[in-house]
Each structure stands twice: as C-alpha cells, then as structure tokens.
Write a structure and sequence with these properties.
The protein is an alpha+beta fold. It contains four helices and 15 strands. Helices cover 27% and strands 24% of the residues. The protein is globular, with a radius of gyration of 17 Å. The structure holds magnesium ion (2 copies).
Length: 260
C-alpha cells in the first residue's frame, strides 16, 4: 500500500530531508585524501544527532555503521572502516536521518580531490542527470514505470550499466516502504503515484557491466567487472503538478558547522 501523507507528516518528512541535505553539505568539507570512512561515519552521526535526528541506517537490518560509504567499484552499502580516501577516489555517501519518526534518504557521489580521468567525472554528471530526469517524470497520476523509463533512457544514452537488483522506494515512518521505484520500466506501467506520496529515486549506474555481486562482508555491493559506479538519490514529495525535493542541497550550514 502506498501511503498518502498528512500535512503534519509532510512537515516532519521535510525536516528529516532538510537535515539529510545539511549532513551532505557538512560532510563535503571533510572529503579529502587521508580521512578514513569510519571518521566520516563518526562525523555524520555526531552531526545528525546534534540536529535532533537519529541515523536511519544505524543498525537497520543489522547494518554496522551510521551511514553507508562506498568507494569506486562499490555500488552501495559500503561499511565504514579504517580505509582512507585517496586522491581521485569516487566516494558515495548514502545518508538517512529520522526526525520525530519520519525519514529522509539521499545518496550523493563525490570525487576526492582531482579526478583520475574524464570518464569518472562524466559518470557522476550523467548519473545525476539520470536522477533529475527521473524526477521530472513525477506528478500526481504518474507511474513508477514513467520514472524508471526516464532514468533508464538517460543512462543508456551514455552507455552506462543500470543496476536492476536494487531500487528506489517509498519513504515515510519507515525508510524503505512501498512502492519499489526501479531504475528501468515502461511508461504508464507500475503503481500509480498521487499527491502526498513520498518516494526516493536512486539511480545506481556503472561505467561497465550492470551486473553486481556482494562481498563476503554480506553488505558491500560491487560491480562484476570492478569498473566504477555512481549513486545519486533524492527523497521527494509528489505534488499536483510535479514534485518537491525534500533532501535539497541548497541548504545553509550554521556558522558553527563550517570548518575553518
Ligand atoms: Mg539512500
Ligand atoms: Mg534509498
């Protein structure tokens, strides 16, 4: 069942989403060679909790971290560890925050320092473009197939591999809810979305094959050919004539949260 949110619920989802956007802005300051992914995770947890939220992914299905941090050929669900970021790495931060029982979920990909090659830069640019084109398909009465079709079409224009095993989802009083929002689909097919529904759209696109496997840690998902992968995700509210991004990135940090 796809839940239609009340105004009060939407306001809580807006606040959760705002904190997720802020967390990305806060963490971006620390994305430099030499920092460990565990330290980024610690900073994320401290920041999210300082804003009156909890980390949605901490302990979710047993996840051993506060946010997911995946590098290069890792697609999603990377566990924070003592590994250090290196110049040219692609680092994906998947951040979830819960405010008064309601969640926000947004992943973003970043290049550490200078990119290793133009292909990596293009991968990020094109995956973000796929996300944005997916969002443009959203309005009252659209289907999840309309969104998936728009994401897939953009990804294939650039010859990127589209991960099929992992999908976007409804967001609300749980971080993963109905409906599934695949990154492929047929227009006018799939569940219909209406004003007041809240979903996360999250293309995971690869420079090579779409195929993936799971590491022995039972969490980290990697590309089969070890080529790089990117992940971009926003949580959005469906509106009468479009959508509202709840995990906006144009939010302003408080002065005390800016690293001098
Ligand atoms: Mg996410
Ligand atoms: Mg998600």
């Amino acid at each position: 069942m796809i839940v239609t949110r009340t105004e009060d619920e939407i306001n809580k989802l807006r606040e959760a989403g705002r904190i997720v956007g802020l967390t990305h802005k806060y963490l971006q300051q620390f994305i430099k060679p030499g920092i460990s992914t565990k330290e980024l995770d610690r900073l994320a947890k401290a920041f999210i909790e300082s804003k009156g939220c909890t980390c949605s992914f901490e302990g979710l299905y047993g996840f051993p971290g506060s946010i997911c941090i995946s590098l290069n050929n890792e697609v999603v669900h990377g566990i924070p560890s003592h590994r250090k970021l290196k110049e040219g790495d692609i680092v994906k931060l998947d951040v979830g925050a819960c405010y008064q029982g309601y969640h926000g979920d947004s992943a973003w990909s970043y290049i550490v320092g200078k990119p290793n090659c133009k292909k990596d830069e293009e991968l990020l640019k094109w995956t973000e473009e796929s996300l944005m084109n997916g969002l443009k398909a959203i309005h009252d009465g659209c289907t999840t197939g309309d969104i998936g079709h728009a994401v897939f079409k953009t990804a294939r224009k650039y010859n990127l591999g589209v991960v099929r095993e992992l999908v976007g989802h409804g967001v609300g009083d749980k971080v993963h809810m109905d409906p599934d929002v695949p990154n492929y689909g047929t227009e006018k097919k799939g569940p219909t979305l209406h004003t007041g529904n809240v979903i996360a759209v999250e293309p995971m696109l690869n420079l090579g094959t779409a195929d993936i496997y799971m590491l022995d840690d039972n969490w980290t998902i990697c590309t089969d050919d070890d080529k790089n992968s990117a992940h971009f995700e926003h949580t959005v509210l469906v509106t009468d004539d479009g959508y509202e991004i709840l995990t906006r990135r144009d939010v302003e940090l408080d002065p005390e949260d800016i690293v001098k």
